[in-house]
Every structure is written in C-alpha cells, then in structure tokens.
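Quick one before lunch.
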Amino acid sequence: MLNRRITLQARPTGIPGPEHFAQDETPAGVPEAGEVLVETMYISIDPAMRSWIAQSSGYTRGVEIGAVMRAGGIGRVLTSRAEGFAPGDLVQGRTGWQSHPILRGRETQKLDLSVGSLEDWMGPLGTSALTAYFGLRDIGALKPGETLLVSAAAGGVGQLAAQIGLIEACHVVGIAGGPDKCRFLNETLGLHGAIDYKAENDLTGAIRRECTDGVDVYFDNVGGPTLDAALANLRTDARVAMCGRISQTVAPEPYGIRNLGMTGGRRITLRNFLVFDYHDRYPEARAWLAARIREGRLRQRLHIVEGLENAPRALGMLFTGENTGKLIVKAAD
Ligand SMILES: NC(=O)c1ccc[n+]([C@@H]2O[C@H](COP(=O)([O-])OP(=O)(O)OC[C@H]3O[C@@H](n4cnc5c(N)ncnc54)[C@H](OP(=O)(O)O)[C@@H]3O)[C@@H](O)[C@H]2O)c1
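Model of the NAP complex:
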C-alpha cells in the first residue's frame, strides 16, 4: 500500500500555494505498539497552517522543510496495534497531508457518530466550533440582549460565533467580503445585519449603521483595519475576543491600530485566546453544540475541496477569501 504525501519544500513570504509543496508516494508504514494505520478521509485547512510554515512559526513548533505538512483530519482505521481501536473505526487526529498516516492511539480520538455525522465532526463539532464557543462564552462573556459583531462571519469560526450569538438572543451583525457571503449571513443564517467590508468606503460608519447602540462584544477573526473600525464602535465595558488576525498574516507591512486610545476610558477588555488551552472542557462544549445541532439551531456550511493533491491550493483560498465556509479537503470517500 502506498502513502501519498505532500511535503513542505519552501517557506512562503505571501500567500501559500502549490509552489511551496511537493507530492510523492512512499510505502505506507506499519504500526508499532500503541499505533494505528489510518486512511485519511477529510483534512481541515486552517489559517494557522500559514504560521506553521513561516520562518518564525509563532506559538507552536514549525513544520520542517521536507516534512509532511501538519494537519488535523478524520480517517478510518485500517490496522490497529493500539488498545481501544479496531479496523473500521472512524477517528480524528493529526493525519497531516497524507493518505495513509500512522497515528499514535493516545493522540487520536474515536468519533461517536451517534453525536454527529462525519461532516458535523469537521464542522459544527470541530475545532472551529470549539473556538467560537470558548471565544464567546469565556473571553467575550456574551450576555443575552447584547450586540455582537463578528468579522470573517461567513467563514469556519465566524459562522459558528454568529449563530451562537443568535442562540443567546443577541443582536448579531456579521462582516464579510462580497455580496454572496453577506446574502448567506442575512438570508441563510438570519443575522440582523451584514456588512460587505469590500464595498464600504467607511467601515466605521457602516458598523455604526448596523449597530446603532454600539457593540458589546466584537469577535475578531481578522485584525487590521476591521479591528480599528470595530474599536471605534465599542460601548463602555465592551469585550473584544481576539481570535485571529488573518488580514495581517500575508500583509507586506503590519497595520498599526489607531483607535486603541478609545478603549481606556470605556474600560474595554481586549483578550487573546487559543482554543487548545480549553482542551479539558471540550466535552462540555461538544455536549452544548451537539444539543443545538439536534434542535436545528446550529449548522455549518462546509467548503469541500476534492482531492488530497489540491490541499496546497486550498490553503491559499483562506487568504484570498475564496472559501465560502469551513474549508476542508476530501481525501477519500
Ligand atoms: N484563537 C484560536 O484558537 C483560533 C482557532 C481557529 C481559528 N482561529 C482564527 O480564526 C480566524 C478564522 O479562521 P477560519 O478557519 O474560520 O477561517 P475562515 O474564516 O473560514 O477563512 C478565512 C477568511 O478570512 C477572511 N479574510 C482573508 N483575508 C482577509 C483580509 N485581508 N481582511 C479581512 N478578511 C480577510 C476571508 O473572508 P472574507 O471573504 O469575508 O474576507 C476568508 O474567507 C483566523 O484568524 C484564524 O487564525 C483562531
């Protein structure tokens, strides 16, 4: 059996793409004690991958040149030498960009399909959903009736944050790029307002138009000028859940935030967070999310790119805004 692999060949300075990776086939490994051989089915494509392959990888160890690209995914166990795993089990783990990884049993989670479908485990029960849940509850401390503003609202994390805001009976406004994404926010998700930041000359004014009483919680997925415009619209005691800064990831020059001075007198809290720090509370979050999925109040639009070989191209889509939902690669049926 062959393992199709995609390895890192060069570190991008801008948007990553196929030119930074190579593809090959090697014999699939044989699991040792405590390991399983898996066939990869779905792979999550995440903005953090860009920092893993940059010169300085930031919060986590980077991917070495020549190594298989790191990624989380879902697959089917083919051979098991790990206690608790049997051939045919569906599992979630660090598959990487390869068709037949060897995974360590203790780092791999068996999926319970009575809780959600495979697609649910990649979407509204996956890491994006956990990020939205902890970012809004613990960092944003969102309360019913408040006004929630979400950027990259049509994306993986943003869609979930916006819907959790609706479930919590908040006034929810999303920011997204382009009329199609804004229509999705208004008509499919039912948000109270959607702002196409690419079509607005005055984003600060557009936020004021949609959030007339100001913003209580800003769930920030993008940083940069959007964060600045949001800061100008925050109410006293507002909270900013600083989830990510995708607008700055491939920007040639960092954007200098101008409106930080407004946050002092209004006693505003800006707080970064990493979802992995909440690992011990994932069961709590998944129980809540699964209940909302069953009630039909929470869903996620997935953007599925077919074929493992297209993973490098898919990664670039996050930075051009081409993805229209939680971005995943389908590696096998
Ligand atoms: N803190 C954590 O633990 C954690 C965990 C997971 C993800 N994150 C962060 O959450 C954010 C969203 O991640 P995701 O996986 O859900 O990705 P996503 O939102 O599905 O995709 C990225 C989106 O970002 C928007 N974007 C790209 N360049 C932009 C720019 N220059 N200005 C404004 N918007 C831009 C695009 O949407 P538009 O078409 O609307 O522009 C694009 O579709 C990222 O910042 C990521 O790093 C954080």
